[in-house]
Every structure is written in structure tokens, then in C-alpha cells.
Amino acid sequence: MSLEDETLMVLKDELVQAYSNGDVDNAAFAERLKEIRSADIGEMLDVMIEDDDALPAAIAVLGTLSSERAANVLGYLAGYNQLAIVAEQQDSQVLTLLEEMSADERADLFNLLGEDRREALLRRMAHREREDLKRLSSYEEGTAGAIMTSDYVAIASGMTVSQALMRVRQTAPDAETVYQLYILSRDGQLIGTMSLRQLMVARPGAIVDDIMIKEVISTWVGEEQETVARVVARYDLLALPVIDAEQRMVGIVTHDDAMDVAESEATEDFHKGMSIGALEDGVSRVPLWSLYRKRVFWLVLLVFANLFSGAGIAYFEDIIAAQVALVFFLPLLIGSGGNAGAQAATLMVRGMATGDVGVKDWGKMLGRELLVAGALGLTMALAVAPIGVMRGGEAVAIVVALSMVTIVLFGSLMGMCLPFVLERFKVDPATASAPLVTTLIDASGVLIYFSIASAILTSVAV
Fold this sequence. Notes:
By secondary structure, the chain is mainly alpha-helical.
């Protein structure tokens, strides 16, 4: 069930109406909420807060749920809505929610709070939970440490299978996942892993060290979250263990958190691909001023870059006056070059993002793009040449055909190379965006087109 489901929409409207009128049957609503998944309740509360301005009703709905379910639902809400809810609650209520949330979601919410509120909550926490929360919330945003959870099942080296099974039973209720188990040395260093299935089918008296997988795929706590998500996807892991500089295990990044990162990074790359700065929130919720500010810089910059196109046209105004038919093909040619360049740039940026292409592959990709772009340019030249004959005769058709091949070839190679250049200078390759590539190719295309036209048509006239 999702918010598009009519049943959930009806329930949402009933909740808003009931709480606004003060005519609430909490027991009846609580019974109906039992049939709805936590993720769907979270989506419903997001809409209630944002579209219906019903924050008190959303808080009341959470109050009808058990503390464990309320914490689970809260974890599905957008960060700013979580903050809005806890801002209206007492420290004791917030503390209960934090204690029931998973370790990574608890740290995320904790980091949203003000300094005074955080200190007040920390003072009321048990020592172990306080230290764990402080540690998780201290990692730099965008790293493995910032998205990991400390709720995992750890088994001490030297345990028998039966002892390990007992350990799983003891820690399973609080663990994020029990399907992957981690074997640690006395110093807390990660020395092996095994699946729950391996443990269950093993002989009870066997030592876990003898049956564990010793070649463990892990990541460093300071690794970029995008790289972490890529590793999880590449090896199809349920969870990826995270270690510190001393090889001690400090947490795991679960598959669902890695996929959230992948979605976030893909969204960021899409925005950069169209020369839009990173948005703090969804496009429907970001403030208008922020939306304007994120878009205006590149647009203004590209306006001035387009002046070079105008300067190129002005420089060749004599040949244009002599062959007015040339103007007809100008948008077609520079548009084709821009499109080809944007395609090439998109392919390279995505290849770099997935790890399929690296800076070391530049030479190989250049050769491949040269062949593909050449074939594309020739095909497009053959398609447009007959139009050139009809509009301006054979000479103009030759100019247009040669220009098409050259501009498409140049645009494709520029679009392919820009991401590598940016990567070399430690700039996000996604900045090699369609607007940037097309603007550069527009100016270059004008010069290429009219230079070829000037050379060929002048010689024909002579």
C-alpha cells in the first residue's frame, strides 16, 4: 500500500479532519494503522505535515503507536519533518524514540538537533548508548561512518558453533540484520565472516574459526559513501563491514542504506548534469530563492560564453551575406554537435560513476569514440546533404556535409574528454554537463562551419 492507494488517502483525510475537529477515536485509528506498513505511515505523515499543515495531527498519530513502531515510522520521515516533530516533544519522549530507533537513524536524527537539545538528551542516556551515539554522529558526512550502524551480530574468535548460535539469539532482537555474522578477535579486529545458514548447518562442536570465510570484503570508516554503495552493489552484499585504521570493526553498512546512497548520488549527478547546484531537499519543497540561486550561476555564465558564438557569426558576416542559405543550416549543425557531445559526456560520466571507466582508460575510450563519432558524423552528413543541394546547390551541400562530420566528431571528442580532464583536476566529472558541453560546442561549431564555408565557397567563386 502507498499513498496513491485510495484506502490510505481516505485514512489520511479522516485523520486530518478528526484531529482538526477534536473528534478523535484513538483506539479506532490505532487499529486501522496496524494494517498499514510503517513506510506507508511515514509517507502519509510527511504529506500531512507538508500539504495539510497538520503537524499536531501527525504527532498525535505517532502517539497512538507503540514506541517501537513510532520510532520505526519516524525513521521513514524526511529529516526536516522529523525535526519538526521532535521540536514539539519533551526530552523524555524524544529519548524514548531515540532508544528504539536503529543506530544509524538515531545518529542522523541526533545530528539534526541543536547543540543544547543534544547535550540535554546525552545527559539522560545510559553510558553505553551515549558513547555509541556520540561516536556514530561524529563521522564526517558522506563517509561510510556516517551511514553505518553499530547494530550487528559479532561472534568472538574461538567460539563453538553452539556458543555462536546462543550469541545470535541474544543479540538478534537489536541487530539490523542477522543473516551475516562477523567473527572478531580479542582486540575487536575483523578476522572473518559467515552466513547464518553456514552456522546453522555446521556441527555444534565445530570452532567458528575453522568454518568462517577469512577473505572478508570490508571498507574503511572514512571511505566515500558512493564507493561503499558501489562495493555493496558489485558483490551483492547484504551488509558491508566497516573497519577503522586499526582493523577493528566499528559497524556495517546495510544493503538498503547503500541503495539510498546510490539514489542520492544519482540525483546529485542528474542535477550537476544540468548545471544545477546540490539541492538541500526535493524540488517540490526547496525554497524558491534556493532554487533560483542553485540555477542562476551557470545560466549567467553560459550566457556570456554564448557571446563567442555571436562574435564568430559577426566575423564571417561577409560570407553569410554572399550565401544566405548557410544560415538555414547553422542551428542544425551546432545542435547536432551539441547533442553528440552531450551523449558522449553522459556516457563517460556514468561510466566513471559506476567504476566502469577510469582516467587510465582515456586513450582506449578516445580511440573508440573517434570511430563511433566518425561513423555518426558520416551518417548525419549523408542525411542532410540532399537538403543542402535543394537549399543552396552542390557547393553548399558539400560545406554542410563536411561541417556535419567535423562538428559531430569534434563535439563527441570534447564531450568524451571533458569528464577525464575534470577528474584529473579533482573536479566532479558530472560538471561536464549538457549545458556546458553544448555551449562550448556552439561556439566552436560556428567557427568550424563558417571556416569550411569560407574556404570552399571562396575557391568555388574564384
